[in-house]
Amino acid sequence: MIPRPRPERFRLRRTMMFMNAQKPGLIKDAYIYGCDSIMLDLEDAVAENQKDAARFSLYHALKTVDYGDTEVIVRINGLDTPHWREDVRVCVAGGADGIRIAKCESAQDVLTVEKATEEAEREFGVEVGRTLLMAALESPKGILNAYEICAASERMFGVAISGGDFRKCMQTTPQRDGVDMLAARGQMLIAARAAGVQCFDTVFTNLDDTEGFEAEVLQNKAMGFDGKSLINPKQIRFVHQVFAPTEKEITQAEKILTAYREQSAAGVGVFTVDGKMIDIAFIPGAERTLKLARACGMWEGDLV
Amino acid sequence: MKNAVGREIPDFLLTNGKEVYQGKNYMDGKYIQKASPRTKRYETPQESKLVESLADALRACGAKSGMTFSFHHHLRDGDFVVNMVMKAAIEELGLDNLTIAASSLGSAHDPIADYIEQGKVVGIQTSGIRGRMGEVVSAGKLPTPAIIRSHGGRPRAIEGGEVHIDIAFIAAPTSDCVGNCRGIGGKSDCGSMGYAMTDAKYADHVVVVTDCLVDFPNMPASVEAIDVDAVVVVDSIGNPKKIASAAARISQNPRDLMMAENVAKVIASTPYFKDGFSFQTGVGGPSLAANLFLEQYMDERDIKMGWAIGGICGPMVELLKKGKVGKVIDVQDFDLDAVRSINQTPNHFEMSASQYANPANKGAFVNKLDFVVLAALEIDTGFNVNVLTGSDGVLRGAPGGHPDTAAGSKVCIIVTPLVRGRMATVCEHVVTVTTPGDCVDVLVTDYGIAVNPLRPDLVECLDSAGIPHVSIEALKDKAYSLVGTPDDLQWEDKVVAVLEARDGTILDVVRKIKPYQLDG
Amino acid sequence: MEVLKPAAAGTLESSDAQVMIEPGDGTISLSLQSSVMNQYGRQIKATILETLSRLDVTSARLTVVDKGALDCTLKARVECAVFRSCGASEENIPWGGAVR
Q1: How far apart are CA B148 and CA B129, in angstroms?
Q2: SS3 for chain C, per residue?
Q3: pLDDT > 70 fraction of chain A, expressed in percent and rounded
Q4: Mean pLDDT by 10-residue block, N- to C-terminus, for chain B (520 residues)?
Q5: C91 domain-assigned
Q6: Residue C35 falls within a domain, yes or no?
Q7: What is residue B441's DSSP assignment?
Q8: Looking at the whole model, is its pTM more than 0.90?
Q9: Interface partners of B (3+ CB pairs, < 8 Å)?
Q10: Which of A67, B120, B356, B431 lies 20 to 30 Å from B336 when distance is taken between CA atoms?
């Protein structure tokens, strides 16, 4: 049995790759491709009459496979199905890092799952509060309630939009420039930032359309997303490339953190780096840049 | 007696000067006495060598029981000729005690398994053996062990007289009435006929079997009329769909692509990756995909490949047409793009198996090879590779050119997933050694790269390029941690196949497997 | 657990195993086919029997067709088949208890 460390609420999540929890050949080593998180799917990828079988597979995969530093999230079935409670039980018992709530529409949905999660944690002797949550917004109502969803629980680390269902509700289809989801993405991002959680974009499903995929990733980065959901390992590299910091950003972050340590030791709160005024508000950003740089293999050091 | 790869070779095989494997290039500098065939003179001018049927051709060549018939495998899994010829020999002429010496055999030849079970076919010499034939040979149905040779080892054995071919059957996509053959221009095209060439020169009798008779002279001929006794026209020599796939496509499997990219990285980290370098790759998923990533490095550094050899398929032809490779020299074609290109695209040439890979001639192409990228069924912690027996001990593969290119090249890279299903590809001991570890330099898997400690120069290359690598033991441990440590296979004493090293020494033997009994 | 009705779980895909279970005659009878029989047959059999014993199944006829499944998959398929055969596979599974 593989003990997993306590999940980190805010960590690097550039790429979350979906895997069918029912396919033994897929889930045994999905981490080798180097995505930040894998998303084992009990929902859409699993046929209605195989939900039970998928849970047994998932349980043993979680208990047996050494996923290393890769985060393991499980997408559970919607709250309108008979499956989600048992899904939560197996996630918690297996020690998944987090649960993705499908079709989340309100803070109450988050609280409902949180309650079941806590019950499961008590039932299986898991530290209460260990299991993280994220929400998938798949409907206009979910987007409108994005802020209350994001802020509903201390366990919440992020929200993701689910393009397929959302576009259907909005009576639109994927557009080259992303205009079909522009408002929703924007609203979700604002809500996530306001609530202080992470924000992830939807999957890009046409694997042959490299150009379209790359355009979407660039737009995600420009809009301020933390990462993207993926359906195929071959999509990982480009996202990591795009979300990597520039050399200039890394140098700047190093300078800020070094200066901050020196100055705060001396009791100084505001100082300048390269002629620019710096205070404590710059520190989380600089730390994030260096963590990202390390994950991208661009930086080695002990500032973060 | 134990050989240089630690395999116990039974004494009864070590007669007539046969030795156990002693290590790479052990035979260097020794002399070989070439055998000469006893061939018939055709002084009186002949209008045509056409005969009515295979049975007539067999009779014309004096076919009798106890003979050795040879075949080439350019028609791959589409081949009809082996079955057709053996049927005529056994069922029409009533022959038995026959030996098949083929450059390879596959599942197209399942019917031959029946002839083995009936005791009509008593000897098999081949590079590859699969399907039902592999099963019956593994079950010990041959009175003498099958002999497995590499593509270079076969012409060595033929030229040196270890294999005496009584009648060579040349499946020919086109032939004229006197037996000038080509691999193109017909309805069952295979392109290169490289594996047939030595057979035609060293067999006592040669029969051409074609399904497309063309006007004399069929030039330039791969097999020449001066070596041919008879020509038989049949309805079809093979299933074109299985001879050459429409186009060998580069794998989209992310695992293959990831490994292929690492292969290219390793290649690009060595000093041999410079303008004019030479290259061979297999057609398996990750091996072929290495082409794609190698091209990116070539573009980046503005260098071109000097030449490529081997079994050829579309992606290599594509590089040739783009001017990124100088010459392609081709012993076999795997897809229609390659078939259509050979001898048509400038600088795409045909070569014989001996020219390609024979260790006993004065320098085959493989000896000048910088890089070869190869697959493996298994590789052990001594870097010994198995491409012949499944992990269940049953014959189902082919050394092919694997041992030859590995031995000749400056850098031999094996690329394989760490595990396949529940089979550990990287293991403690391979079931059968088909390519000795002293010829293998780098292993690339989906869980990491390992360099053979015999190549500290390559370790340095990878280190300076910042390519992480681990020991092969670490990869083996990882594999066993995933799939569990396998139980040792249980064998009977009976030897069912002998694995000759390319130089003719004995590398390994395959014994009859004792299947695991559930309640045993 | 008592096997009440025939049930199956798993597929014949590579790396998977298909497990069929039926009520038995007071003992466990196992028929096993595996693509990795010679190297792993002993371990596969042991895994299946251990799993049944953890679930306290003492009477069943099992037919397993293994396509190179890892132990964790074998366990999952056997457990699912057993729970299905009792009509109890959908909820309140004893994760970490009899299922582990």
Answers
A1: 9
A2: CCCCCCEEECCCCCCCEEEEEEECCCCEEEEEEECCHHHHHHHHHHHHHHHHHHCCCCCEEEEEEECCCCHHHHHHHHHHHHHHHCCCCCCCCCECCCEC
A3: 99
A4: 95 94 95 95 95 97 98 96 98 97 96 97 97 96 97 97 97 98 95 97 98 97 97 96 78 89 97 98 87 94 96 93 96 93 93 97 97 96 96 92 97 96 95 97 97 98 96 97 94 97 97 84
A5: no
A6: yes
A7: -
A8: yes
A9: A, C
A10: B356
- Mutating which of C35, C73, C74, C100 best tests the A interface, going by the most A Cβ atoms within 10 A? C73
pLDDT at B520: 47
In what helix (H) or strand (E) does residue A106 lie, and over which residues does it extend? none
For an interface test with C, give the residue of A26, A42, A49, A60 to mutate (most C CBs within 10 A).
A60
- Encode B277-293: b = buried (16+ Cβ within 10 Å), e = exposed: bbbbbbbbbbbbbbbeb
Residue C36 sits in a domain of what CATH number?
3.30.230.10
Given the candidates 2.60.120.260, 1.10.10.10, 3.20.20.60, 3.40.50.12780, the CATH classification of the domain at A15-243 is 3.20.20.60
Q: Which of A32, A99, A39 is nearest to A68 (CA)?
A: A32
Cα A258 to chain centroid distance, Å, stands at 29
Q: Residue type for B477, please?
A: D
- The amino acid that residue B119 corresponds to is G
Domain boundaries of chain A, sorted by first residue: 15-243, 247-295
